[in-house]
Amino acid sequence: MLLLNHSSSILECGTDEAGRGCIAGPVTAAAVILPKKFKNLILNDSKQLSEKKRDILKPIIEYQALCFGVAHVFQEDIDKINILNASILAMHLSIDKLKPIPKFIIVDGNKFKPYKDIPFETIIKGDSKYLSIAAASVLAKTHRDLYMHSIHKEFPMYNWKQNKGYPTKEHRAAIKKYGITKYHRKSFRLLPKQLKLNL
């Protein structure tokens, strides 16, 4: 599938997040401004790419982008403000890091809050339609995966290196056996209803 540049006339960033459905670790967002003539035949929505392809694309995007920003919002804040607000906050924080400042923002999905006074558009499945959102999805996913790899060393029994904090059977079995860590999202259902967890 050929992804498109959304606009060639104004300075525009794409933004996306990774880790909304996880039960441990941060939600991570990236924002990317690509040059007008940027092309890449492999780039797609990060969920459609293998880990190997994402890892190949990460340095290409970071080198060729006009600028990019990546931001984590951690589990303590997710528990305070909920995952939707945390996802939008992570996107805002990633846009904060862009220089130059974009004149327009395109967002994957259908939920966003105004960022300063910059106009924006939400696009369902935007990460499989537009290059800058796809690039942001790859950076959000790869940066989050690197973070989960780093905390895996602290708590290897949950195998975050493999599951990245998603609620796999193995991850939930480890929670049942060992309890939770400081990295778990306490506001999420960490175990199915029939398995009670004493927090």
UniProtKB/TrEMBL annotation:
<dbReference type="InterPro" id="IPR022898">
    <property type="entry name" value="RNase_HII"/>
</dbReference>
<feature type="binding site">
    <location>
        <position position="17"/>
    </location>
    <ligand>
        <name>a divalent metal cation</name>
    </ligand>
</feature>
<feature type="binding site">
    <location>
        <position position="16"/>
    </location>
    <ligand>
        <name>a divalent metal cation</name>
    </ligand>
</feature>
<keyword id="KW-0255">Endonuclease</keyword>
<keyword id="KW-0378">Hydrolase</keyword>
<keyword id="KW-0464">Manganese</keyword>
<comment type="similarity">
    <text>Belongs to the RNase HII family.</text>
</comment>
<feature type="domain" description="RNase H type-2">
    <location>
        <begin position="10"/>
        <end position="199"/>
    </location>
</feature>
<keyword id="KW-0963">Cytoplasm</keyword>
<comment type="function">
    <text>Endonuclease that specifically degrades the RNA of RNA-DNA hybrids.</text>
</comment>
<dbReference type="Pfam" id="PF01351">
    <property type="entry name" value="RNase_HII"/>
</dbReference>
<dbReference type="InterPro" id="IPR024567">
    <property type="entry name" value="RNase_HII/HIII_dom"/>
</dbReference>
<feature type="binding site">
    <location>
        <position position="108"/>
    </location>
    <ligand>
        <name>a divalent metal cation</name>
    </ligand>
</feature>
<dbReference type="InterPro" id="IPR012337">
    <property type="entry name" value="RNaseH-like_sf"/>
</dbReference>
<dbReference type="InterPro" id="IPR036397">
    <property type="entry name" value="RNaseH_sf"/>
</dbReference>
<keyword id="KW-0479">Metal-binding</keyword>
<protein>
    <recommendedName>
        <fullName>Ribonuclease HII</fullName>
        <ecNumber>3.1.26.4</ecNumber>
    </recommendedName>
</protein>
<keyword id="KW-0540">Nuclease</keyword>
<dbReference type="InterPro" id="IPR001352">
    <property type="entry name" value="RNase_HII/HIII"/>
</dbReference>
